[in-house]
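Weekly sync, protein design subgroup
Attendees: M.S., D.O., the rotation student, P.L. (late)

Item 1: inverse folding check
M.S. brought a backbone from last month's batch and wanted to see whether the design step gives back something sensible before we order anything. D.O. pointed out we never logged the input encoding, so this time it goes straight into the notes. Structure tokens as presented (509 positions):
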């Protein structure tokens, strides 16, 4: 008997993954429009982010961590489904009245974790649509929504804050909605005298630069129009505090069970309007101040884990949905005050582009006592969290689900000899049909419309002509400045074929 016990002990300790006795809690903190160079732990000097720096110092900081797309909705779709968003039509940036773009029958990441016995929640920016094919019923039940795709609880900004309406959604209803003041949301002006950013521009506390000139709320005009719902409307300045408040309440209520929290920040996304206590705290304008607010939020979550003695049984992933943008529709001085700050770090491009700056973002993993501190150059992506969490919780994935996610758990945990991805497809919003394809040191760009966007300005007039195909050696040229496709035609043809095959076959496996 003693021999059998010793043998069993050796088998257990030799397993590749030895975790705490209970399943670890999981928190994914997804920043919005945060660039590779926006944090002091990634080289920023114009501001200081001590809480995120602490997260990096206590875990693995990845130098090749990516989002799967250079805009928010496709990345969030891919994160929750494990499938590239370009594989399905209509997965670009969701409109204010968009229906739920993840069909309710889809097997999702929260579905997986519920099977594993987890309590699940999403708190923050959603921007994946609500309701059936007719769109959201703002005055009734907002379903299907997060509850129908695996989340036990949600407290949401339903779209994104430059799009109407400015209300919270808790579970399946607009919070604090007065039925005597019904909410209407649309893309057409509801009446000739309806105040907009065009007709009442002088009344705005933040002026628009392009596109964001519909309904005015809180002195800021937005994309789209809405009326009513006045008791339900929030103040932009309070968003960051509300996400933290609701997250702490939910963690406290679920601390005795394994839990999964998707904390979806909005701080850096336009309109950038951090709380007054953060305004003016950096020299970079409201964009820099919003980074400081995000760092504070991360600190509050980490302090909560420490207070509840959960830090040693919680895997924390910090990432971003895409790279940075400066002028994204509002005159908030992000460009004027940027100075020497490089939001994308050394990389070219940003949000909306398939250059490295569009999808290479901060990526940090921390699990105290399990992940040894260090810096990793393994290729990892937000889309891979699905398969990796399946391995972590030993939960099988159904056939035909999660078509592009790989189990990178050893790399995420910083284990010796762990392997990252061998290749990765990057996409823009999907409407332009632009792709980046990473394979080893090589990067192929495919621009089907032969145009791309730049980092500084997102409006259509900033579209820049480019060759359909470009090839870069990221080892020698990480800035993607020297297109060497003519020097390496064989490599270019191989990558073109691989990319086309991966797109056509519908899966990466």
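Designed sequence read out in the meeting:
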């Amino acid at each position: 008997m003693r021999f059998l016990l010793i043998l069993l002990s050796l088998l257990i300790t030799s397993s590749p993954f030895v975790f705490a006795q209970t399943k670890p809690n999981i928190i994914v903190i997804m920043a919005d429009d945060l660039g590779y160079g926006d944090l002091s732990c990634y080289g920023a000097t114009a501001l200081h982010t001590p809480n995120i720096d602490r997260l990096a110092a206590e875990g693995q900081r990845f130098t090749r961590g990516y989002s799967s797309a250079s805009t928010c909705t496709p990345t969030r779709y891919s994160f929750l489904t494990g499938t590239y968003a370009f594989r399905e039509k209509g997965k670009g940036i969701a409109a204010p009245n968009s229906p739920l773009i993840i069909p309710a029958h889809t097997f999702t990441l929260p579905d997986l974790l519920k099977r594993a016995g987890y309590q699940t929640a999403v708190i923050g920016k959603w921007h994946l649509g609500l309701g059936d094919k007719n769109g959201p019923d703002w005055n009734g039940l907002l379903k299907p929504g997060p509850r129908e795709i695996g989340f036990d609880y949600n407290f949401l900004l339903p779209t994104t804050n430059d799009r109407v309406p400015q209300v919270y959604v808790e579970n399946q209803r607009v919070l604090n909605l007065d039925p005597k003041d019904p909410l209407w949301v649309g893309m057409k002006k509801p009446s000739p005298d309806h105040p907009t950013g065009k007709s009442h521009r002088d009344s705005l506390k933040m002026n628009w630069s392009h596109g964001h000139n519909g309904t005015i709320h809180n002195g800021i005009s937005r994309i789209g129009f809405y009326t009513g719902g006045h008791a339900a409307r929030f103040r932009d300045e309070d968003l960051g505090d509300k996400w933290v408040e609701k997250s702490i309440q939910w963690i406290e209520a679920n601390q005795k069970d394994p839990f999964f929290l998707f904390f979806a920040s909005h701080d850096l996304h336009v309109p950038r309007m951090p709380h007054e206590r953060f305004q003016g705290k950096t020299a970079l304008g409201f964009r820099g101040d919003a980074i400081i607010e995000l760092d504070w939020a991360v600190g509050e979550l980490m302090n909560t884990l420490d207070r509840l003695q959960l830090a040693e049984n919680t895997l924390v992933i910090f990432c971003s949905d895409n790279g940075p943008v400066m002028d994204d529709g509002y005159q908030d001085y992000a460009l004027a005050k940027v100075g020497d700050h490089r939001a994308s770090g050394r990389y070219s491009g940003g949000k909306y582009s398939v250059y490295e700056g569009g999808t290479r973002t901060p990526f940090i993993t921390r699990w105290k006592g399990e992940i040894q501190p260090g810096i990793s150059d393994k290729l990892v992506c937000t889309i891979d969290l699905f398969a990796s969490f399946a391995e972590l919780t030993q939960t099988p994935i159904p056939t035909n689900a999660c078509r592009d996610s790989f189990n990178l758990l050893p790399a995420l945990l910083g284990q010796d000899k762990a392997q990252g991805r061998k290749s990765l497809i990057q996409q823009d919003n999907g409407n332009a049909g632009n792709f980046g394809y990473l394979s080893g040191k090589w990067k192929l760009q495919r621009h089907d419309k032969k145009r791309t966007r730049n980092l500084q300005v997102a409006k259509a007039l900033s579209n820049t002509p480019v060759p359909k195909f470009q090839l870069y050696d990221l080892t020698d040229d990480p800035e993607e400045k020297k297109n060497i496709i003519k020097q390496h035609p064989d490599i270019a043809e191989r990558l073109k074929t691989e990319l086309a095959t991966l797109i056509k076959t519908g899966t990466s496996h």
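Discussion: Residues 285-307 form the longest helix (23 residues). Residues 1-21 have pLDDT under 50 and may be disordered.
Action: P.L. to compare against the previous round before Friday.
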